[in-house]
Amino acid sequence: MPTLSPRAGFWTAAAVAALALWSSAAPTLAYPLYEAQWGISSADATWIFSAYPAMLIVVLVLFGNLSDYIGRRNTILLGLGAQIVGTLVFAFAPGYAWLIIARLFIGAGVGLALSPASVAMVEFAAPEKKASAGSITTTATAVGLALSTLVGGALIQYAPFPLHLNFFVLAAVTAVVMGFAFALPRHNPTEPTGRWRVRPIAIPKGSRGLFGIGAITISAAYLCGALILPLGAQIAHTLAGSTNALVTGALMAIFPVMVAAGSLLTRSWNTRTLIFTAGITLIVGLWLFDLTGSVASLALYFIASAFAGLGYGLSFTAGLTVLTRYAAPKHRASMVSGGYLIGYVFQGGAAPILGAITTGSGIRAALLVGAVSYTVIFLLMMFSARRLGAPAEVTA
């Protein structure tokens, strides 16, 4: 099989990043059906969601530097294979426990594939485009998230087998992307000598302060996702009055659309400005979500999703830019994996807490707790950005 050109490799890696978020969010619109047909609670739904970052954390700890040794291609293929298995388990799941198993496989797959795909986009990008690789990665993940809500909403609402067909379609798309991934270069531009072994994620000493900034910035985005992805459909249904899965999916798609818009329209901004703006928009978006607890309005839900999506896009782009542009090529996978690891620790902890509050005290209480606690973290992120200097890409 001929090897893909750098340009084709870049867009294949972008498709892998998109599938990571599509796979992650695919069950979102099915949660209300699981609750109605299987009797699972909001807390159960957030535990299903949390199985994903929990497995992702394990994979990132054990295999975060794997692609530096066996190549981006091989690691991506392993990840896509695990995602297909998880998606098919979802499609055939006979009960609650199988949903947890499915999420574990998807978490493993995304943990293996997303970091090398993010790094590959930097390595395949033309020299003049390397600075914007982070924003394009963010856009790719936003496209995947939008597809999960729109395709999922349409299939669940209007197609037969609402708990199955959505996952069959995702598995088929993943298989197609996997075919293209087979044609990626087998080796990285720079690979360490020696055999791979499990070792702690290595953060270069001179970049540890910057790593902290990048990690908390990515974590801010993922915390926002921990509120919107597992609870978004219920927020739209309970608070905004939406009963149509496609309408709910379209409302939720506003979030990734604004993620993409924010990352693309601010490519020329410096990283510090991105982080400050991200913090402000995330805070506004979450407090608007809290307001939906008192004002049941689709328009308000729309505006809240737009602000939250914009903040997510700016935050994720800024964090990824810090993690990819300040690391030597041989440390890039570890640097990015470390940032994702911290982000998923935050997300994996927040989702079940918010779910438990929703089950015990109602979704309005969960929104208030999320808004207050997240605001503190977003302010810390903005404060940390004060130490960030002008970007200076490391090439060796």
TrEMBL record:
UniProt entry keywords in alphabetical sequence: Cell membrane, Membrane, Transmembrane, Transmembrane helix, Transport
Main location: membrane
Stored PROSITE patterns: MFS (PS50850)
Keyword Nuclease listed: no
GO cellular component terms attached to this protein's record: plasma membrane
Subcellular location: Cell membrane
Domain Major facilitator superfamily (MFS) profile as annotated: residue spans: 1-396
Molecular functions per Gene Ontology: transmembrane transporter activity
Transmembrane spans: 46-64, 76-98, 104-126, 138-159, 165-185, 206-233, 245-266, 273-292, 298-323, 335-357, 363-383
Protein topology in the membrane: Multi-pass membrane protein
Protein name: MFS transporter
Source organism of the structure: Mycetocola tolaasinivorans
Lineage, top ranks: Bacteria, Bacillati, Actinomycetota, Actinomycetes, Micrococcales
